[in-house]
Amino acid sequence: MEHDHLPGEPAPDALPDVAPQLRGLRRRRGLTLETAAQRAGLSPAHLSRLETGRRQPSLPMLLALARIYGTTVSALLGEVSPEYDPIVRAGRSEPVEADGWVYHQAGGAGRALQALRVHVPHATRADIVRVHPGEEWIHVLRGQVRLALGDTVHVLDPGDSAHFDSLTPHRIGAATPDGADVLFVHTLLQTPAAELCLGDPGPHRR
């Protein structure tokens, strides 16, 4: 069954398993659409479109929703393996593209420590500011990355890294027009404190 999508929005074929996963996880957590949307920094209408497949979530959105629901991005994408294979082979899974972000699994699925190889699109004013429990580490492979930590903006060159507390308000975007490639590692805290995940103070719209 095909879903209608709004004019100018991508057809919901890039992440076929995410929409029902998002709805099911939210309901199992006992969260209303409005509450979950507020914690993720989204409007209820936007989250509703994600849950029906009418919009595709970007990687930052997936990260926020995974933390709120106490799961991982790899689990949302259906990549959980009960055997927890410690080896991640190149080309094991297809990259996922959404909203300019291109995501490659670089670590074991279903782990509390999530490792990703990511193409980061050029920074815009609409990029979401995040605050959540945990730690993040990024290492620039190609291009330049603009990292805002609180009121300070850092520009990272290839070979540069950043390791910071995720409770510091932060925003990540490429400083180069053609984007940047980074290694990205973050912790997923599956504790009651993880429910403190916050996005923008107001609705985040694209």
Summarize the structure.
This protein has 206 residues and is of the alpha+beta class. 20% of the residues lie in helices and 25% in strands.
**Number of DSSP helices?**
5
How many strand units?
9
String of helices and strands: HHHHHEEEEEEEEE
Unreliable residue stretches: 1-16, 190-206
Describe the protein's architecture and organization.
The chain is α+β, with helices and mostly antiparallel strands and 206 residues long. Helix content is 20%, strand content 25%. The chain is built from 5 helices and 9 strands; from the N terminus they run H-H-H-H-H-E-E-E-E-E-E-E-E-E. The strands form 2 sheets. The protein has a 6-stranded antiparallel beta sheet with strand order 1-2-3-9-4-7, with no helix packed on it. Strand 5 (145-149) and strand 6 (152-156) form a beta hairpin. The longest helix is centred in the N-terminal third of the chain and has 11 residues, at 18-28. The protein is globular, with a radius of gyration of 16 Å. It starts with 17 loop residues before the first helix and ends in a 19-residue tail after the last strand.
